[in-house]
């Protein structure tokens, strides 16, 4: 299975029910796709980023993120936002992070 194209990531959101009770903190958005840098990973004190070989980006587990903000200035593409500040066109990534982070292994290994 190859890396998923962007539209497939967005399409997968339709398969997830809206719980409305998920704790949210920082969110990784579309500019992360294709990043080779991953400068966010070593600064995270709780190692709460997830990904897999099939995923084109990393995701933040909202249940583990402590909202410290350390990853934000490290990201060269400015892909990480606090949930309330996610640009409208990328709001879907809030749910993407919450759901796919539960399906992927840690990105810190
Ligand atoms: S969040 Fe930023 S630094 Fe981390 S993998 Fe994505 S683009 Fe790269
Ligand atoms: S805000 Fe802090 S805890 Fe949350 S993902 Fe970024 S570095 Fe990790």
Automatic annotation (TrEMBL):
Keywords carried by this UniProt record: 4Fe-4S, Electron transport, Iron, Iron-sulfur, Metal-binding, Transport
Cofactor: [4Fe-4S] cluster; [3Fe-4S] cluster
Residue ranges annotated for the 4Fe-4S ferredoxin-type domain, each copy included: 23-54, 56-85
A Pfam family the protein falls into: Fer4
Gene3D superfamilies named among the record's database cross-references: 3.30.70.20
Keyword Iron assigned: yes
One GO MF term attached to the UniProt entry: 4 iron, 4 sulfur cluster binding
InterPro entries for this protein: 4Fe4S_Fe-S-bd, 4Fe4S_Fe_S_CS, 7Fe_ferredoxin, RnfB_subfamily
Chain segments annotated as coiled-coil in the UniProt record: none
Function: Ferredoxins are iron-sulfur proteins that transfer electrons in a wide variety of metabolic reactions.
Protein name: Ferredoxin
Gene transcribed to yield this protein: fdxA
